[in-house]
Each structure stands twice: as structure tokens, then as C-alpha cells.
Amino acid sequence: MPVPQKTIALKNSQDPPMISVVMATYNGAQYLDAQLTSILAQSYSNFEVVIVDDASIDETVAIVNKYMQLHANISLYCNNTNLGYIKTFEKGMSLATGAFIALSDQDDIWQLNKLAVLFDAMNGYELVYSNSLLVDENGNSTGKKMSDIKNQINYTDCLMYTIGAWAPGHAMLFKKELADRCMPFPAMVTHDFWLGFVAACRGEVHYVNLPLVDYRQHASNAIGANTHSYQKSKSTTAEKLKKARARMQLLFEKCPEYLPQKKVLEQINESYQNYSFKNNLHRMLVFFRYRNLILAYKKKSALMKLLFCLKTFFKIDA
Length: 318
Description:
Helix content is 38%, strand content 18%. It is α/β, with parallel strands linked by helices. Strands 1, 2, 3, 4, 5, 6, 7, 8 and 9 form a 9-stranded mixed β-sheet that branches. The chain is elongated.
């Protein structure tokens, strides 16, 4: 694929605010050209591209260096050892100089107006995100969008993040100050989940119902659209329970003291500690009371939500 001609992000007083596109790469040579081309062709005029490579052993760094020779707004930082995608994204966000940050996977393709549309949608929000089109490894549409799998919605309450969410990082734009408030990023939840939860503790995570990213699905995805099977197939039951308890403790501790949701998260957190009859009953009742918030991102009928709450009497959701 041809490399676009040299571009320089303008930085005078007439420009819109700087957006830092933060990309984490790891052995991404196969798809990296297409993604960098789509980013550099963005209609938004003032952006930088901060790339952190996580000790790749393929041609990823060479490809980035090729683009850096032609584009003054690209910077590259290389990890000496493999840190994993969460810490690699965290490093990129810490190095970003823009007032806003857009996260980028190495293998997607952005619509050319992605940054412009998301920036226009900010409108006082701390974090916005869009829908995405699912494409196969060759970039061909699968006929599905992210919203076909789970509800993509405005997250208006941090309780909507209690057991999960569906606001993916590759479709986000957020204020740099949110990233600063999230650091250090915990290892037990994904970076985009953490960004969304922390933002929802302050205000609305706003959804833009437009597919602004071609989200490529292939065997080497770090997560992929089917996050359920990826995350649940790697751990034993004991490990999943330990992680679920740690996650709930994390959410409870991070939730600000002044929010009424703090008490709800405290109750759920306490009920996660063991399977006593008292805890099981209390957990089920709390989930039942707040089921429309906690299960908002799941495509469940009213009946299925009730059954889910009943299930929590016997099982800690991992």
C-alpha cells in the first residue's frame, strides 16, 4: 500500500484542539499500513499519532519508521520487554500531548471523518464512543455491527459498569484529564472498561450511533468483538471468582464517596466475599433492584433480566 505524502499537524490559534491518537502495536505488520493510512487521512486537522510498540519481533517498527520519515506528527516509543496491551496503552496515554485522546488498535480501518465526528459529539462530555462495523481479516464486511452483539448506549450511571459494558476503546474519544485520573490502570480489567467506569462516575459516557471504525476480526485479535468467549475460556473457576471479587472491590474503592452508587457497590462487594445464605440473598435483591442499570448493555428481555438476578443467588458473576 502506498505511503501518503508528508503531513504536518498545524498548531496555531485557529486550529481545533490537539487530539492524540494513541496506538499500541505488537507484531502488527500484516494490517498496520491500512490503519496508519486511514488515520493519517483524517479530516480533523490537528492531531498527533503516538505509537508504543510492545517489543514486536516482526516488521512493525520498520513500517512505523517508514511513515515517520514522511509524517512529522508521528512519534514512536518501544518497550524493552513485552508489557501487555493495558500497560502499553497506559504508557501511550501518559506520553500524549493533546487535550483529547483517541485510542487505536493496529489492525482496524477508520472512517475518514472519525475524529471530526467524535470531536463534534463531545459537547461537554468527558468520553464519547461510536458504533463499529465488523469486518473479516480481509476487511470485508461481516454484515454485523458492534451494536448487533450488545446494546451500545449512553452510560449515564456508573452502576451500568457493575459486571460489564460495551463501549470499546477503539471507538472512543476522551479528555486527557480522564486518562490522568485513571492512572495507574489496573490489570484486572481492560483499559477501555476502566476509562468508561471512571468517566461514568463523573457524568455521561455518550454514544454516537454511527459506525466510524471497521473493526477487523481475526485469529490474532487481543480481544475481538466476542469478548465473552475470549475472557472466559482462559481461566479456572477459582481464578474467575478471584478476579470477579477483585474487580468488584476495585469498582467500590474507585467510586467517589459522594455518589449514592457507592453504597450499592459496597453492598455488592460485600456479597461477593462468600456464598453464605445472607450474602446470596442480599446479592440477588440488590441485582434485582438495579437490574435495568446493571444489565443495560446486555440484550436481555425483562424476563431474562429477572432470571439473571435469580442466578446471582447461586453464582457470582465473573
